[in-house]
Amino acid sequence: MVVSVNNLVKRYGDLVATDHLSFEVKEGEIFGLLGPNGSGKTTAINCILSLLAYDKGEINIFDKPMAPDEYGIKKDIGVIMQDVAVFDELTVYENIDYFCGLYISDKATRKGLVEEAIEFVGINDFRRFYPKKLSGGLLRRLNIACGIAHKPKLIILDEPTVAVDPQSRNNILDGIKKLNNEGATIIYTSHYMEEVEQLCSKIVIMDKGKIIAAGTKEELMAMIKLGERITAEIFNLSADNLKKIERLPNVNSIKYDEKNLFIKYSKGRHNLNTLLDFFRDNEITYGRVYSEQPTLNDVFLEITGKELRD
Amino acid sequence: MFRHIFINRLKCIIRDKVLIFWTLVFSLILATLFGMAFTNISSSENFSSIDVAVINNDAYQKNEDFRKFLKAVSEGEGKLFNIIAATKDEAEKLLDDNKIAGYIIGGPQTELVVKKSGFKQSIIKSALDGYSQTVTTLTAIIKNNPAALQNGLLEDAGGTWEYTEAVPLGTTDKPDTTVNYFYSLIAMACFYGAFIGMKEITDTQANLSKRAARLNVAPVHKLKVLTAGLLAGYVILVMEILILLAYLIFVIKVDFGKQTGYILMTCFMGCAAGITFGAFIGAAVKKGEGVKTAVLIGSTMAASFLAGMMSGGSSNIKYLVAKDIPVLAYINPITLITDALYALYYYDTHTRFFININLLSGFTILFCLLTYLIIRRRRYASI
């Protein structure tokens, strides 16, 4: 096991930031910690890294108890903090070299690793720039390069795409997949469900310091009643037809706002065909119709009764 | 690893423009202002020879003794007068044009003509009275006791006897009270190194900066990082103080006496005390960086004021503190630096100097210990 967290409790006064948190991260996984802001993700990460003192629990990394002076464990960990953590007085190259130098003493080896990291995050043209001259996206890429240059076995990324433009975000996400393909185990925290869905092989959803669901994306989807969501653009829909639609197979709930009809289905097949057949048989004129599969937000909504981004 | 951290911390500090401004440029600006303000104060205290004319008539030419007397007081480095031999008309014109303080008419009765009474005129009159009194006394002695001439009366009367020995104060030939201001400035500059100490703590403590959090997850001991950083800061601060000293000595022309080695020792100790003080404040004050900076500036300026740096009779403040609250002088590191330099300048012995240096060393060790006790924890309650 790469990381094992058992019954982790961390309190800030009366606030319980992590409430008996337990999970395991296996080698080669991209492990996602998903939850709204303040759900305890960063606190959990800081406890794992032995930055924060915690009230209760056990944390093992590479099957050894983690402690602040466990340098043997630390040398194989790379961390990308939520906030950009670089020195404004050092250039892009010097920043990466400095942080890499805390892990790799040999200058020649380090030079190669720094070049590789610069190439990996695509900031070669900016190597002599000072961080203040970089855009938000480039800064994030530099932040990542500083955390991965020493080729760690375990990489922890804490919300690395906050306030990042779409191009940089895609670059970052592609990079994480590549690192994983090269053998690194990844722990990825985010409140962006799309990213976690796209990236992670195993997902833990957190709220108020507790794990409310855990599993693969498919396992999480299977936990909820919602199977499909269909939206249809309709301008004149009678109350009678609305009642008939409500009685169609698998329909869980409907909502009509004089312009769009929203239907939620429980699990089942051919829902869209059945609905279109109904429109045709009852001569209902419709515009755009589209179907959506449930998301992690639906999982979160069904379990907690609130949106993930609330 | 230590070298790697040390070199990068050197780069970080040197490239921090705000830090360099406060620890070097600000001191140089103050030095320049002090230099401009004090240049005339010192020169106004210097004595300059008095311009005086003597009427070049027959009586003057025949009176060889009087000519010798005037020659004696208008020669050498500390001469009293600049004597100009002139006709009466020329002397009158010079007096009218304020080119001379007065003119002398030799003869049986020496006369001094002045346009107004004042300091310079009093000096001329006093010198002439002295000469006349000596001549009168000698004439009376020879008249009553002619044998005195054979016993060396004229040699005795003509010689200059000093009954009081002039001992130069301290280690310089020309003591200058304004150097106290420059001592305080050097002490303040040393203590502005506290900003460097605070920066190092901020970049080492995970609860103070994200950069430090990244350092704390690396496989390197926190104290190693801090030691390398503080050492880098110390090297830069010492360089800055050497630049300031060179600027004061070679550009502003401040005379710090002849004990260069001890002056450098004081500066090195002052830098160490300043940096460790900043590290202590950075670790002890649990507020944001703005509050820490405010505490540093406030405490440094207050300590500088009590050490006698500010104008408007602030030197009296140092004296008042030493007289009425002496303990405050002993616990103010800036006073200790200032006083160590003062002791080097004004005293022949090093007792007072070493008391100051030992106290300063004590404070440096105390700041180090307190900082260590605060930052030694391995995990943080919150970050």
Automatic annotation (TrEMBL), chain A:
Transmembrane segments: none
Gene Ontology MF terms in the entry: ATP binding; ATP hydrolysis activity
Keywords, comma-separated and alphabetical: ATP-binding, Nucleotide-binding
Ranges where the ABC transporter domain occurs: 3-233
Pfam families: ABC_tran
Domain of life: Bacteria
Protein name: ABC-2 type transport system ATP-binding protein
Listed InterPro entries: AAA+_ATPase, ABC_transporter-like_ATP-bd, P-loop_NTPase
SUPFAM superfamilies to which the protein is assigned, alphabetical: P-loop containing nucleoside triphosphate hydrolases (SSF52540)
TrEMBL record, chain B:
UniProt feature coiled coil, ranges: none
Sorted UniProt keywords: Membrane, Transmembrane, Transmembrane helix
Signal peptide: none
One cellular component term from this protein's GO annotations in UniProt: membrane
Keyword 4Fe-4S: no
Domain ABC-2 type transporter transmembrane stretches: 17-372
UniProt cross-references to Pfam families, sorted A to Z: ABC2_membrane_3
InterPro entries in alphabetical order: ABC-2_transporter, ABC2_TM
Membrane-spanning segments: 20-38, 225-250, 262-285, 291-313, 325-347, 353-375
Its membrane topology: Multi-pass membrane protein
Gene Ontology terms for molecular function: ABC-type transporter activity
Compartmental location: Membrane
Name under which the protein is recorded: ABC-2 type transport system permease protein
Biological source species: Ruminiclostridium sufflavum DSM 19573
